[in-house]
Write a structure and sequence with these properties.
The complex is a heterodimer of chains A (389) and B (416). With 389 residues, chain A is α/β, with parallel strands linked by helices. Chain A has 14 helices and eleven strands. Chain B has three domains: 33 residues; 83 residues, no CATH class; 243 residues, 3-Layer(aba) Sandwich (Rossmann fold), CATH 3.40.50.720. Chain B contains eleven helices and 15 strands. Chain B has a seven-stranded parallel sheet, sandwiched between helices. In chain B, 48% of the residues are buried. The chains are: A alpha/beta (389), B alpha/beta (416). Chains A and B meet through α4, α5, α6 and β5 of A and β4, β5 and β6 of B. Chain B: This is Short-chain dehydrogenase. Chain B: It comes from Roseivivax sediminis.
C-alpha cells in the first residue's frame, strides 16, 4: 500500500451546528439548508462562492443531493453524497480535501443532517439495509440497540468490562454537555442514575443509547490561501484513514477498521495518541468509544476499561473526550451524528469552542464509525486535525 | 428449565381480544430460501457451488469468490452461543407485546455468525443447535436450542410462537366417518389437545368407529357435513370461537380416471367434498380463526388439509380424485395467504396411498392411520407448512425436486 499524500494547502473552517430538537415537523431539506446557511454566514460567504457540495442525510427521500442542488439553488462543479452514517464526517472531509487540493473545487461545503418526524426513526429502521431486513429485524426488532447490546455483552465477557466502566464515559459526556448550549440533554447525570436506568436490551440501558433528533452540522473545506484571505480561523488536516467491512471473519465485532489503518494514520500525522489535546470518538453506545481508544492505539485491545478508569474525560480533564457531550448527551441528528465530533473538534483547535473550549487545544483526533448493516458497523474512519500554532 | 404452560383460564368475553400482530415479514428474494426450508423445518443455508463458502445472511453472490451460483443445502446446525441480549422494548408492535425477548449471536461450526432467537434453556457460551422454523409472519427464522432435550422444552414462549403444538389447544377434525378419525383424535389428545371436536355427517347412518370415538375422553361428536353450507355455518356458529387447530380429513375417493368413468358423477362428488368442502369450511371458520391468532395460550394457530400426494402428479388410476386434490391444494394456497395476517398457518399433510377399501389393488407401501396421526402431530409441533407422510409421499417429493416432468411421466406409467 502506498503512503497517502499530505493535505498541504487545504484547511477546514466555519464549523457550524444548528440547535437540535427531539422531534421536528420540518424536512431534511430544511435542516440541511440551516446547516449550510450557518457555515456560510460564519465564513461571510455567499451561496454562489461555493462550488463543491458534500451531503450526508438519511431522510432526504425521495430526493438525493442532486435534487438538493436545485432545491437550495447551488450550482456546484463537484458534488458528493456520503451514505456512511457515523463515518460520514471523516469521509466527507478527506474527499472534499482532495477535491480542493486537486483543483476540482475551490470551496466545498460539507453538510450532514436529518429531520426526526414522529415516525421517521421507525421508517428509517424498516428500510435500513437488506441484511438487517432479512437477518436482524425478525429477531426481536431491537434496532441498533439490540445489535450493540450483543456487542457490549460480548465485549464484557471477553475483557471483563463492567457497566460502571461504560457509565463513566456517559457521565463525563453529560458533564461536557452541560457546558454546550446546543445539547439536548441538560440534566446532570450521575453514575447511580446511569446504573439505575430503564433496561432497553440487556446490558444496554437508557443512558447507553443516543436520542434520535433533528438537526444539522456543517463545515467548509478550502485552500489555506482562501481562508487566510478571508481571515477565517482554520484547521489543517494532518492525516486521515477510512476502511469498510474490516475483519469480516471475526465472529463478532470486537475491533474496527481503525486497527488496520492506525499505523498509516499516525505516521502520516507525524505524532501519536499521546500528542492529542482532545479526542472525539463516535459514541453511539459507549462500548464503541472503547473500541476506538483501543484500535487507534491509546491502549491495548481489551484494556480500554482500565485505561479510561484512570482518565478524566471532561473538558477540563487530562483526556478531554467528546467535548460537546457527543451524541449520547447532545443528541443524534441522523447523519449529523457522523459530523458532530468533527465540527466540535474544528471549533476546539481553532479556539472557537466557547464554553466547551479545552485550554490550549491544538491537536485533535476525530473518529467515525457507521452503518450497522447486520451484526456490526461496517464503516470506520479517523482524522487528525491541527490548529494554527 | 422451562416452566410448563398452564392451561388457559376461561375466556372473559368482556375483555377486548388481543389483535393478531406479525413480526417483520419483509424479506429479500434470496432470504425466501430460508422460509422455503422452514416450511419443512429444515435447517439450510446457502453454499457456494464453486468455492463451498457458507453464506449468512442470504446473498446473491458469494462473499468468498463472487460466484452467483449459491445453493440452499441442509447444514450442520451446531454452534456456540457467543453473546446474548434480552430485548425489553421495540418499535415493532409484535415484539413490543411479546417482550422481554431473548436473542443472541450463534457462531456456527461452519464458520458464520447468526443472530437468532434463543431458547430459555440455552446457556451463554454453551453449545447450541439452530432450528429453522416459520414465525407468525410465515417467514423462516432461526432459533437456538440447547443441544439436547430439556424438560418442557416445547413450552418455551419463544419456541411456542414458532410451532402449532396441540398442547392446551382445541381441535376440529372434520370427518368422523374416515377410518383414520379415531387414530387422529387419539394422537391429538395424547399430544395435549384439550378437546377434539369431531364432525359427523349423516348422523343417522351407522359407521364402524363411532363407538370408539364416542368413548374417547376429550372427543365431542358434533354434526357436520362439509357438502352442506348450512351445516358448516351452523357448527361454526356453535364452536367457531374455540377452534384453534382445524384438521380437514374429509375425503371422498373412488378409483377411476377420466375416460374410464364415462360421466362426471363421482368427480362432482369428489370436488364437492374435497375442494368445495374445504372452501365452505374456510368461509365459515377462517375469519374467526384469523381474528383469534393472538388469543393467549389457546390461540388459533393452524389449519391442516390431508391431501393425496398425487395432487402434485396425478396417478391416472385415481385421475378424477386427484383432480379434486389438486383443486384443494390450490385453494389451500390461497387460504394460506388469507390466514397469514392472523398468524394462522395452513399446512398440507401429503399422504401416499392409504390402507383402506378404496385402495385395495394398490401395492404397498400404504399409509396406516397411526402413521398419518404421527405425521400430523409432528407437523404441528414443527409448525411446518408441508408434511410428507409415508414412503410414497417422501419419494415423490424428492423426485419432484429433481424434475417434475419426469415424475409426471413415471407416475402416469404406473410408477407410483
Amino acid at each position: 500500500m502506498r503512503t497517502p499524500q499530505s493535505y498541504d494547502g487545504v484547511v477546514i473552517a466555519a464549523p457550524f451546528s444548528t440547535p437540535y430538537t427531539r422531534y421536528s415537523t420540518e424536512t431534511a431539506h430544511h435542516w440541511l439548508a440551516r446547516g449550510l446557511k450557518g457555515a456560510l454566514d460564519a465564513a461571510g460567504l455567499r451561496k454562489e462562492d461555493v462550488d463543491g457540495l458534500s451531503v450526508a442525510s438519511f431522510t432526504l427521500f425521495p430526493d438525493t443531493p442532486v435534487g438538493l442542488t436545485q432545491h437550495l439553488g447551488f450550482t456546484p462543479r463537484w458534488l458528493d453524497s456520503i451514505p456512511m452514517g457515523g463515518a460520514s464526517g471523516v469521509v466527507a472531509l478527506r474527499r472534499a480535501a482532495r477535491a480542493v487540493q486537486a483543483g476540482d473545487a475551490d470551496i466545498v461545503a460539507c453538510v450532514a443532517g436529518d429531520t426526526n418526524q414522529i415516525d421517521s426513526f421507525r421508517k428509517l429502521l424498516s428500510s435500513f439495509s437488506r441484511f438487517a431486513m432479512d437477518a436482524a429485524y425478525p429477531y426481536g426488532y431491537g434496532g441498533p440497540n439490540a445489535m450493540f447490546a450483543l456487542l457490549t455483552d460480548r465485549y464484557m465477557t471477553e475483557y471483563g468490562a463492567t457497566r460502571e466502566d461504560f457509565g463513566r464515559i456517559c457521565v463525563a459526556q453529560r458533564d461536557n454537555a452541560l457546558r454546550y448550549p446546543n445539547a439536548v440533554m441538560k440534566k446532570p447525570l450521575t453514575l447511580d442514575d446511569y446504573l439505575a436506568a430503564r433496561p432497553i436490551a440487556d446490558p444496554i440501558a437508557l443512558f447507553d443509547c443516543v436520542m434520535p433528533c433533528a438537526g444539522a452540522e456543517a463545515f467548509l473545506v478550502m485552500t489555506e490561501d482562501e481562508a487566510a484571505k478571508r481571515g477565517l480561523p482554520a484547521a489543517r488536516i494532518s492525516s486521515t484513514i477510512e476502511r469498510h467491512n474490516a475483519f469480516p471473519d471475526d465472529p463478532m465485532q470486537l475491533r474496527g477498521g481503525w486497527e488496520m489503518d492506525r499505523d498509516t494514520l499516525w505516521s502520516c500525522a507525524g505524532c501519536g495518541p499521546e500528542d492529542m489535546d482532545l479526542v472525539q470518538t463516535y459514541d453511539d453506545y459507549p462500548v464503541i468509544s472503547m473500541l476506538q481508544f483501543e484500535d487507534l492505539g491509546f491502549c491495548d485491545k481489551g484494556a480500554a476499561p482500565e485505561y479510561l478508569r484512570n482518565k478524566d474525560l471532561t473538558v477540563t480533564g487530562d483526556l478531554p473526550h467528546n467535548t460537546s457531550g457527543g451524541q449520547l448527551s447532545a443528541g443524534q441528528a441522523g447523519a449529523g451524528g457522523g459530523f458532530i465530533g468533527l465540527v466540535e473538534a474544528i471549533r476546539q483547535v481553532t479556539q472557537t469552542a466557547g464554553p466547551t473550549q479545552v485550554a490550549e487545544a491544538r491537536k485533535a483526533l476525530v473518529s467515525g464509525f457507521g452503518m450497522i448493516n447486520y451484526d456490526r458497523g461496517l464503516c470506520s474512519g479517523a482524522a487528525v486535525i491541527e490548529g494554527a500554532a | 428449565m422451562t416452566d410448563p404452560i398452564a392451561p388457559p383460564p376461561k375466556k372473559n368475553p368482556q375483555k377486548p381480544q388481543a389483535v393478531p400482530l406479525s413480526p417483520p415479514a419483509a424479506r429479500s428474494r434470496a432470504a425466501l430460501g430460508l422460509s422455503a426450508a422452514a416450511a419443512e423445518a429444515r435447517f439450510a443455508l446457502q453454499h457456494c457451488a464453486e468455492c463451498g463458502a457458507v453464506q449468512y445472511p442470504p446473498r446473491d453472490a458469494c462473499h468468498g469468490c463472487l460466484s452467483t451460483d449459491l445453493r440452499w443445502r441442509d447444514t450442520d446446525p451446531a454452534g456456540t452461543l457467543i453473546a446474548e441480549t434480552t430485548v425489553r422494548t421495540s418499535p415493532n408492535l409484535y415484539f413490543r407485546r411479546a417482550a422481554p425477548w431473548r436473542t443472541g449471536t450463534v457462531r456456527l461450526d461452519v464458520g458464520v455468525s447468526v443472530v437468532a432467537h434463543v431458547h430459555g434453556d440455552c446457556e451463554k457460551g454453551g453449545r447450541v443447535r439452530l432450528i429453522n422454523r416459520l414465525d407468525r409472519a410465515g417467514q423462516g427464522v432461526l432459533m437456538a436450542l440447547p443441544e439436547g432435550e430439556t424438560p418442557n422444552m416445547a413450552d418455551d414462549p419463544e419456541l411456542r410462537e414458532l410451532t402449532c403444538d396441540p398442547k392446551h389447544r382445541r381441535v376440529l377434525l372434520t370427518d368422523a366417518r374416515q377410518a383414520n378419525a379415531p387414530a387422529l383424535a387419539k394422537a391429538l389428545l395424547d399430544a395435549g389437545a384439550s378437546v377434539v371436536f369431531v364432525g359427523e355427517a349423516e348422523t343417522w347412518r351407522p359407521y364402524p368407529q363411532r363407538e370408539t370415538l364416542a368413548a374417547m375422553e376429550g372427543v365431542q361428536l358434533l354434526p357436520l357435513d362439509v357438502t352442506d353450507t348450512s351445516s358448516v355455518v351452523e357448527l361454526a356458529g356453535e364452536i367457531g370461537g374455540k377452534v384453534d387447530i382445524l384438521v380437514n380429513n374429509a375425503r371422498f375417493v373412488r378409483p377411476g380416471g377420466i375416460l374410464s368413468r364415462g360421466d362426471v358423477g363421482f368427480a362432482q362428488r369428489e370436488m364437492d367434498v374435497n375442494a368445495f368442502g374445504l372452501m365452505r369450511l374456510a368461509q365459515a371458520f377462517g375469519p374467526g380463526m384469523r381474528a383469534r391468532g393472538a388469543d393467549g395460550v389457546n390461540n388459533a394457530v393452524a389449519w391442516v388439509n390431508i391431501l393425496s400426494v398425487h395432487a402434485l402428479a396425478s396417478d391416472p388410476a385415481y385421475g378424477g380424485f386427484n383432480a379434486s386434490q389438486a383443486a384443494a391444494l390450490s385453494a389451500a394456497q390461497t387460504l394460506r395467504a388469507e390466514l397469514r395476517p392472523g398468524g394462522v398457518r395452513v399446512a398440507t399433510l401429503f399422504v401416499g396411498p392409504t390402507e383402506d377399501d378404496w385402495h385395495q389393488d394398490v401395492p404397498p407401501p400404504k399409509v396406516l392411520p397411526k402413521a398419518l396421526a404421527r405425521s400430523l402431530v409432528q407437523g404441528l409441533r414443527d409448525g411446518t407448512e408441508e408434511i410428507w407422510c409415508g414412503d410414497v409421499a417422501q419419494d415423490l417429493r424428492d423426485r419432484l425436486r429433481q424434475d417434475p416432468k419426469v415424475v409426471e411421466r413415471q407416475v402416469s406409467e404406473g410408477g407410483a
